[in-house]
Design brief:
279 residues; alpha/beta; TIM Barrel; eight-stranded parallel beta sheet; two-stranded antiparallel ribbon; 10 helices; 41% helix; 19% strand; globular
């Protein structure tokens, strides 16, 4: 296994304000210092990083700033995360334009993976057609990713139409996209993360690890919440997944580097106890 970390903890996630009036320009961004995040993730000892599409786009005009920072930190850009509503026919072309740009950015900085979330909940209620359209859209995302030498994975997420196990089944049954289990989102959505990984072993191509506390609700560093990380790691190993484990924490009331270190120390211990080596 190889360990990576997501840069979201440095500043939390926001959407680019241009997206209010232009769907094609609505990127995710971690609202902090990207270069600081890269440096501090590397200092903790992680080997890879995942970024939002908007943070990678910051360096489109001067790519060496990011590539030099990654090299100095001993990191590779593993994956880029983007997302969309995917269910509204009128805006779907502009959303897919944005996904295509995210794929171009990911490939240009050496990433091999594109991670997407989404599937909007309508105010009037979710319909069967929404799942059909989401599945069709995710297949197009796969095509876009493959055009750029990337593999696409879908990340079930709170606030979308894919939160609980039944909803996950509905979308994975309608698309060929790979499955990115996010352990905390799966648990918060009412699922058992290890069980869901065991249900879809052939679909797991990317992994987000974070811990979770149901009451009061909160995402936490690994080992600080209620999740059974040893069982999750066992399920991942049973799926013959031997690649990047991306640790993620949406926000932290303290030093984000401290949170990254807490998670790495705990994860390294769990992997060692399971006899799983690190590359």
């Amino acid at each position: 296994m190889k360990l990576g970390y997501c840069s979201i903890t440095w500043g939390g996630v926001v959407g680019h304000p241009a997206g209010v009036t232009s769907v094609k320009d609505l990127f995710y961004r971690a609202n902090g210092d990207t270069l600081q995040a890269v440096r501090e993730i590397g200092e903790v000892g992680y080997r890879g990083v995942e970024m939002f599409d908007g943070n990678v786009a910051e360096f489109e005009g001067d790519p060496r700033v990011l590539t030099d920072a990654l090299q100095a930190a001993g990191l590779e850009l593993v994956s880029v995360y983007t997302g969309a509503n995917f269910i509204y026919a009128d805006i779907l072309p502009d959303e897919l334009h944005r996904v295509r740009r995210a794929a171009q950015l990911a490939a240009s900085f050496g990433a091999k993976r594109l991670v997407v979330g989404g599937g909007a909940r309508r105010a009037a209620g979710t319909t069967d057609e929404d799942y059909a359209r989401l599945g069709e859209s995710l297949d197009v995302v796969c095509d876009i990713a493959e055009e750029h030498g990337l593999e696409a994975s879908y990340h079930p997420h709170l606030g979308t139409i894919v939160e609980n196990p039944d909803e996950i089944e509905r979308v994975l049954g309608r698309s060929r996209i790979a499955f990115c289990p996010d352990t905390a989102h799966l648990a918060a959505g009412g699922g058992n993360p290890a069980e869901l990984i065991r249900r879809y072993p052939d679909r797991v191509r990317h992994v987000h690890l974070k811990d979770f506390r149901p009451d009061p609700f909160g995402f936490l560093p690994l080992g600080a919440g209620v999740l059974d990380l040893p069982d999750i790691i066992s399920a991942i190993a049973e799926a013959d997944y031997d690649s990047w484990l991306m640790v993620e924490l949406d926000e932290y009331d303290g030093d984000p580097q401290e949170a990254a270190r807490i998670s790495k120390d705990h994860l390294t211990k769990v992997l060692a106890e399971a006899g799983i080596p690190l590359d």
